[in-house]
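During the no-cost extension, the postdoctoral fellow (Dr. R.K.) reprocessed legacy sequence entries with the updated structure-token encoder. One reprocessed record is reproduced below for audit purposes.
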Amino acid sequence: MKTTEIEILEFATAQWGAKDLPAIGLKVGEEAGEVAGALVKIPEGRAKWEDLDKEVGDLLIVLSQIAAKRGWTLEQMRAKRFEQIKERALGRVPCAACDRGDFQLGHADGCKSNS
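Re-encoded structure tokens follow.
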């Protein structure tokens, strides 16, 4: 079954030619800048929330191309990385929340620093 990421990469290649990972990476920077630009312009009244949604979508499309070239889906990449981040964060003593002095919402009950 063809993933959305593969479909996006095939479409982009057909439309604009094959790109290597560094070229796609530069496009990520461009699209991320457009997300930032929308966030600056919205409070100024020069953009709407829908503009931000479009820019985030464009960024995700470019990130999908990287995922496809690496043989992953965005969901797989996100899930794998999130697990790594959780393991690292939960293994810290004291944990990041304790470093911030954040002891709300039952944090102290589950914190390894309190063991």
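The chain has two domains: 1-72, 73-115. The chain has six helices and no strands. The remaining legacy entries will be reprocessed before the final report is submitted.
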